Amino acid sequence: MDRPDLYVVARILERLWRENGPMVKTRLQVAARVNYDVFSKYLTWLLEKGLVSLENSPEGREMVAITDKGMESYKKLVQWINEVIHDKMPGR
Amino acid sequence: MKHENARKAVLILATVLVVLVILFGYGALLIYSDHPDEPNFVLRPGLLYLSYFGLVALFLVSISLSYELTTVDANPKTALADLAHRLRVSRYRVKEDSKGLKVQVTSSTAIRIIAKETRGRTVIGYKLDQTPSGWTALIILLFMFYLAIVTVVLTIYAIWVVQRFAQNAVLPRVVGVKRTAEEGPSDVIKSTLVDGLSEGYRLASEAYEAQYSNYQDGILAVMTGGLFVWFLSFMSFFVLIRGHSLYEDVEGSLVASIIVTLLFSLLPMVYLTRKVKIKALEFRSWSDKLLARLQQETGVEPPKEDQTSAFELLAKASKETPKWMKVMRRAGLFTDPWTWFAIFMLAYVAFQLILAGIATWYSNNLILQATLFAGGIVAAFCCFLLYRRWITKAREEETTTITNWEARLRTVREKMQRHLEEL
Fold first, then answer.
1. pLDDT by residue (tens digit) across B255-306?
2. Cβ contact (<8 Å) for A72 and B185?
3. How far is CA B324 from CA B295, B317, B339, in A?
4. What is the CATH number of domain A6-85?
5. Distance from the A77 Cα atom to the nearest Cα atom in chain B, whole angstroms
6. How many residue pairs bridge chain A and chain B with CB atoms within 8 Å of each other?
7. Which residue, among B190, B170, B137, has the nearest Cα to B6 in the 3D structure?
């Protein structure tokens, strides 16, 4: 994926941040608001970039969790948009 | 106790107000009654006007007094930033600017919170402020001579409200809470989202209020114009069609003039309802969306699974912001009531002086007439200059703000995209 949609990435990262722990893929797909194929592509991309990680639940279901890098990335996005809203030029 | 200062101020201001009201009432009584004990005709209006200017002075003193609330260890900038965040978490509408914080307390009253460094400690203080609609109402009341008393009563009451707000809402949030700088990434995300949503909500709400004020002003203008058109058309129909007698077929002229008035008012009313009001409702819908999200972020109930992300909502809101700012800049009376007060005052003075000049037409006092006319023309010219300065400045600010905003949006969008690509 060359140019991921910012909103979809933000939706996935925000949902994982809010969950405060690993969550089932299907629930995450609902939050991403895209079909399963597109969601799978985004998940692969996020895994490649190290923004999320996969874990197995005790019931053997595949769960997705946000990594520290993912958290840091989402924090940056939120801070930048917050600066724009506050009438400031976004910093580094 | 520091908070006693504001209470004492309220007491002193109220006492002065009572004295001025008595003088004002006595002055009015002297003018409107034939008082045999007071032959000096200069003293009668003099007392009234003196007490009126006393009321104006009391109003100015009331709005300029500031009160100390508490002292903190943090520097002024950090103290205010932390306080702003805590107030936003509690869903207060907070505006940060170079003078400090402005927090809306009621629909008309606001509090200005200031912080300054004194002897190594930061002193947090506050003073009375008003929302744009609050300022507009106070200025209009002050302008209406006899209602100046109401202005001062409302101002003193507003100090009381602000003092209670400072004690009950501001003070507990100034001290004893963990600072933003000490939070982890997850907490920073939360507090940043709350700050962004709160600011977005404030901007959207202010844009809605400004646009709705435009709509109401428009309705008022159409009604005034309609009344004028009705009068003119009624007189025209009466004189041109029915002759000069007021007793001939009043009904016919009345119906015809009402039809003309309705035709005249129809297009502007359709424009106001279909364009101006719809735009106001659009801003209202943004304000509601942002508030609902802010409530979710600061409340117990989390957002729903398939709901738009807070980031997405903020990103979309930031695209709308130039529209909101444009409306706020254009709503003159609403956003800059002091300049408009001066414009109205000058227009009123010009009108009165020229009217007095006309009234003294047959007095054969050329110097008096020339002075009155010259004064009227100077006041009218100053009024025009002030208006032109305001409109030029407003247009320049509007262009600069929107250009900067769009540049910022482009920059942040590119930055975010690059950030994702370079990960």
1. 889 999 999 999 999 999 999 999 999 999 999 999 999 998 888 677 777 7
2. yes
3. 22, 10, 21
4. 1.10.10.10
5. 7
6. 109
7. B170
pLDDT beneath 50: ranges in chain A: none
- What's the gap in Å between the CA of A40 and the closest CA on chain B? 17
**Cα B152 from Cα B160, distance rounded (Å):** 12
Alpha-carbon gap: B94 to the closest alpha carbon of chain A (Å) = 11
Candidates B309, B318, B421, partner chain A, best to mutate (most A CBs within 10 A): B309
Q: Using alpha carbons, list the distances in angstroms from residue B376 to A12, B161, B357.
A: 67, 41, 9
Structure tokens at B405: 């905003």
Q: Give the tens place of pLDDT for each residue, B340-375.
A: 878 888 998 998 899 888 888 777 788 888 999 999
Q: How is chain B split among helix, strand and coil, in percent rounded to 5?
A: 75, 10, 15
Tell the burial category of B345 from Cβ atoms under 10 Å away from its Cβ (0-12, 13-18, 19+).
middle
Q: If you ran DSSP here, which 8-state letter would residue B364 be given? A: -
ipTM score: 0.91
How many whole angstroms separate alpha carbon B284 and alpha carbon B306? 23
Please answer yes or no on whether B195 and A31 come within 8 Å at the CB atom: no
Cβ contact (<8 Å) for B411 and A9? no
For tokens 């101002």, name the residue.
Answer: B155
List phi, psi (to 5°) of B398: -60, -50
